[in-house]
Design goal:
mainly alpha; elongated; single chain
C-alpha cells in the first residue's frame, strides 16, 4: 500500500513572527469579513481620460457586423462614432484607421427605397 502524500507544508510558522500590519500593507490588502469579500487593493491606476459606461440599443444586424471583427468591437463602435462626429484625438485616430480597413473589406449592400402608400 502506498503512503499518503502530505497535503501541505510541515513547517510551522509562529504567529508572533508575522510581519507588522502597517497602513501601507493594509492599503494593498484584500479585506474579508469572515468568508465574505469586502474590498480589494488599489487596482489599476485611473486613466487621464476615462470613458463613461452607458446602455445603448442597436439593431441586431449592426451588432452582428461589429462583433464579426472579434474582440475590441466596443472600441470599434467608439472609433466609428468619433469618425462620424469628426472628433479628433489619439484614441480616435488609431482606431478609425483600423475600422476604415475593416469596413472597406466588406461589400456594401445598396439600400432599397421604401414604397409609400
Amino acid at each position: 500500500m502506498r503512503a499518503k502524500k502530505s497535503a501541505g507544508s510541515n513547517d510551522w510558522t509562529d504567529p508572533d513572527d508575522a510581519p507588522e500590519l502597517t497602513d501601507a500593507l493594509m492599503a494593498e490588502a484584500e479585506v474579508f469579513v469572515g468568508d465574505r469579500f469586502v474590498r480589494r487593493g488599489p487596482g489599476r491606476p485611473k486613466a487621464a481620460v476615462t470613458k463613461e459606461q452607458i446602455n445603448v440599443r442597436l439593431d441586431a444586424d449592426v451588432l452582428a457586423r461589429l462583433r464579426e471583427g472579434g474582440p475590441g468591437w466596443q472600441s470599434r463602435i467608439n472609433a466609428i462614432l468619433r469618425k462620424a462626429l469628426a472628433l479628433d484625438g489619439p484614441a480616435g485616430r488609431a482606431a478609425a484607421v483600423q475600422v476604415g480597413k475593416m469596413l472597406a473589406a466588406r461589400p456594401v449592400r445598396p439600400v432599397r427605397a421604401r414604397k409609400t402608400a
